[in-house]
Amino acid sequence: MTMLALLQHQPNHGFALKQRYDELFGQERDLRPAQVYSTLTRLERDGYLSDLGFEKGSAADKRLYAITDSGVTTVHHWIRTPSLPVGRPTELFTKVVLALVAGLDPRDVLDSHRDLYLARMREITAARRAGDVVDRLAGDYEIAHLSADLDWIETAGRRLGDLTKELS
């Protein structure tokens, strides 16, 4: 849906879409060029994009795509539809439980994650000072999630005794 949404402003070709994606999300999510082109092919097949042919004066690989009315409707619906975070249970939760099952100290898992999260929060805070509005907003989002995870780490630490009894 991201590629589709990026085409709402104007028709474009895969290379320019990849560049725009990288500007907006590249630091957080890697996108390979092959993913762009396979996504564009799928979106065209499903009727969300139309192929406008080749960009005038460009090489053959600069095929222009435009979003269709169906694509606009679909992307607007997707943007407006709330979604829950994926990944429940989280990897951290899984590691804590498996540490107990394996006879390891889950406090080591919690402590190492706490240290990693705090270090990442410091990195984000420094980067936000130098970043543009998009970078700052993305940093705010990540810090809020890391903060919530740190709260969970503290709660899990307090509940380790009960969890140990339950899993034994």
Automatic annotation (TrEMBL):
Secretion signal span: none
Domain Transcription regulator PadR N-terminal: 3-74
InterPro entries: Tscrpt_reg_PadR_N, WH-like_DNA-bd_sf, WH_DNA-bd_sf
Pfam families reported in the protein's UniProt record: PadR
PANTHER family according to UniProt: NEGATIVE TRANSCRIPTION REGULATOR PADR, TRANSCRIPTIONAL REGULATOR YQJI
Protein's name according to its UniProt entry: PadR family transcriptional regulator
Lineage summary: Bacteria, Bacillati, Actinomycetota, Actinomycetes, Micrococcales
